[in-house]
Specification:
64% of the residues lie in helices and 4% in strands. With 295 residues, it is mainly α. A three-stranded antiparallel sheet has the order 1-3-2. It has a two-stranded antiparallel ribbon with strand order 4-5. Strand 4 and strand 5 form a beta hairpin. Helix 3 packs across helix 4, helix 4 crosses helix 5 and helix 7 crosses helix 9. The chain is elongated and about 150 Å long.
Length: 295
């Protein structure tokens, strides 16, 4: 066999054939046309655009989705109308909004950490304010100094407000007695017209239209005051109107009064603060001494 770089012997046919094939492959230049895979560089990864056409990012969309889920769970908890429920039921309600069990657990943990609910053991309290109020009633907190000038100012304002509320109640009662007298006179007049002056055929449409006017008045009362068109709702509405009018006439500083109430009685329930201070537990509505903010 011929060595590389040395011309083969002319009599060596095998050597000539190898040299011929080598020169023929060199003419094709396979090495030059070969695709070098080791030299290829992968293209840089495309940057994922998180911004949408309106400027809302994916993170913002996820945040809005979490907020929407929290609000849906809060709405479901409010619709139950309960003060507390077992923890298993609480997690189940969270799972109704979230398809992923892990997401439901995160929503429940977020509600607990944010103070929307209070989880104690296997019980979930849906109204933390009631729990705080109950704890405040059990723990002896230091009372306000009786010599504090703010306490004396509050006592003075409470006395003035009690007189204003009593006057407002008296005025509303007079209106209610006047309304009762009007209904009695109207009924007697309709009876007189039905059985003596006219007939039922004439009075029937009149009574129908009068009743329709009363229904429309009750509907208008509800639209204006957002209260049920009942005797109690009418009493509350008229009391607040009279109370505001008397406070304005006597220059009663209601903002200062509510501020002192929060300072001297920090654990007063907000629902109690916003109530007008009228109790309907007995047959006669009386002022129960509760202080309230005029709506």
């Amino acid at each position: 066999q011929s060595k590389p770089g040395i011309a083969p012997d002319p009599g060596d046919n095998a050597g000539f054939r190898r040299l011929f094939h080598r020169r023929k492959l060199r003419a094709f230049d396979i090495v030059r046309d070969r695709v070098r895979l080791d030299g290829l560089v992968p293209p840089p990864p495309a940057k994922t655009t998180t911004a949408a056409a309106d400027g809302l990012t994916v993170d913002d969309a996820r945040k809005l989705l979490r907020v929407a889920r929290l609000e849906m769970v809060k709405s479901k908890l409010r619709d139950t109308g309960r003060n507390w429920m077992p923890r298993s039921e609480f997690v189940r309600i969270c799972g109704e909004v979230c398809s992923d069990p892990d997401e439901a657990s995160r929503v429940a943990r977020t509600l607990d950490e944010s103070g929307t609910v209070i989880v104690l053991g296997d019980a979930v309290f849906l109204k933390p304010k009631q729990v705080v109020k109950a704890i405040g009633g059990l723990i002896p907190f230091p009372a306000t100094d009786p010599n504090d000038p703010r306490k004396k100012e509050l006592d003075s304002l409470e006395q003035r407000k009690a007189l204003i509320d009593q006057k407002a109640i008296a005025q509303v009662r007079r209106e209610l007695w006047g309304g009762l007298g009007y209904l009695v006179i109207q009924t007697a007049a309709f009876m007189r017209l039905t059985f003596w002056e006219l007939s039922w055929d004439v009075m029937e449409p009149i009574c129908f239209y009068v009743t329709s006017v009363y229904v429309m008045a009750g509907y208008a009362f509800f639209l204006r005051t957002s209260r049920e068109p009942t005797f109690e709702g009418f009493f509350q509405s008229r009391f607040l109107a009279k109370q505001r009018k008397l406070m304005k006439a006597q220059k009663f500083d209601l903002d200062r009064y509510n501020e002192l109430r929060k300072i001297c009685y920090p654990f007063t329930d907000e629902e109690e603060v916003e109530s007008p201070g009228i109790s309907f537990s007995s047959s006669r509505p009386e002022f129960d001494g509760k202080v309230g903010k005029v709506c």
